[in-house]
Amino acid sequence: MMKRNIISLVLTLSFFIVNSYGQLPSITYDSMQREWRPYDAEKIDEYKSDPDFDYGNRPVPAQSLWDRFLAWLNTIIGRAIYMGTTTPIGKILIYVLIGAIIIYALLKLFKVDIRKAFFSTSDSGVLAHEIHHENIHQMDFEHLIKEAINKNEFKQAIRLIYLFALKHLADQHMIQWQPGKTNHDYLEELKEEKIKNGFSSLSFYFEYAWYGDFTISKDLFSDIHVLFESWKKELPE
Hints:
By secondary structure, this protein is mostly helical. Among the domains are: 65-109; 136-233, no CATH class. 60% of the residues lie in helices and 0% in strands. The protein is built from nine helices and no strands. The longest helix has 22 residues, at 65-86. The model is unreliable at 117-130 (pLDDT under 50).
C-alpha cells in the first residue's frame, strides 16, 4: 500500500513539472524606431589627446644603443661595487685601487717621472746635462752633438738632438719651453701636422734610447740624424 502511494506521488509531481515547463511565456518584440547618427571623428581625436581621459600606461619607448650601453655599464659597476663591499677579496681590490689612485695623484702633483724608477738613465762617459733642469738656450748644441759623436756616445747624441729640436721650436714660439714638462706636453702644443709628426718621431727615438736604455748603433743614429735635419727644413724661417 505504501509503495503505491509513493508511486502516485511521484507521478503527480512529474505531471505538474512537465505542465509548468510546457507553458512558455509569449515573446514581445520591440517595435521602437531607432535613429542612427554618425560619430564625430574630430571630437574623438580631441578626447584621445586630452590627458584627463588617459587611463592607461603609455608604451615605453625603445632604448637606443647608447641607453642600453649605459644600462649595461651601470649593471657592471653595480656588481663590482657589490662584490667589492661584500667579499674579502673585493675589499682588498678596492683598497689597492684607492691606493694606486692616491699614488698616481701624488706623482702628478710633484711631477715625478715614474719611468726613471724602472729605467736607468746613467751611462759611463755621458755628458752631464739633465733634461728637466738645464737651460737649452745656454747650450752649444752643434759642439755638444759633434763631441758626443766623436766619442761614439750615440745615446747622448740622440738626447742632445731632441733638446736641440726643443730649442728650435721654442725659438719659433711654437712651444713654451719649461723645465719639467713632458714630451706629451710639448706635442699637445704643436698645431702644424708635419712639424708635430716629425717631433713625435724624434721624441720616440729619444725615449727609446734614453729611458729604454737600448744600445744605439752608428747606423741607427745616422738615420735619426738625417730625420732631424729633414725635420728642421719644415720649420718656418
